[in-house]
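Reviewer 2 asked us to include a model.

Predict the structure of this chain.
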Amino acid sequence: MKIKIFLISLAILFVSCATKKKQTISVVKLMESTTSWNGDPLPQYPSGTPKVTVLKITIPPKTQLKKHYHPVINSGIIVKGKLTVIDLNNNELELKTGDVIVELVNKIHYGINKGHTTVEIIVFYAGTTDLPITILEQ
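Predicted model (C-alpha cells):
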C-alpha cells in the first residue's frame, strides 16, 4: 500500500512539473555609460595588473561620508535606502533603492544619508593592483 501511495505521489509530482511553465532567463541592462553622473567623460583604464573590487557599503541614518575621490572607474547600485551624492561644485545626485550611479573619477565628492533608514550600496571598482580605490581628502 505504501509503495502504491508513493508511486501515485510521484506521478502527480511528475505531471505537475511537466505542465509548469518553462522559466526563461532575463537580462536587464541597469546602466551603460561613458560618463560619470555629472557628465564628465570617464578616463582611460589605468595600465597595470587589473584588479576588480566589489564592496557592500552600509551608511547609517543621518550620516555624512568624508570627502574623498576615486582614482579608478567605479559604479554602484543602491540596494536599500536613499543617498545624496555631492561634488565640490555643489552638483547633487539623489539616489534611491534600485538606482545605479557611475561615480566621479579623480574628483572630490561625498555622500549623505539624510534619511531615517540605513543605506546599502554595492560598488564595483575597476582598478589595478597598485592603485587604491578611495583616497580621503587631505
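Residues 50-136 form a domain with the Jelly Rolls fold (CATH 2.60.120.10). The longest strand covers residues 50-59. We have added this to the supplementary material.
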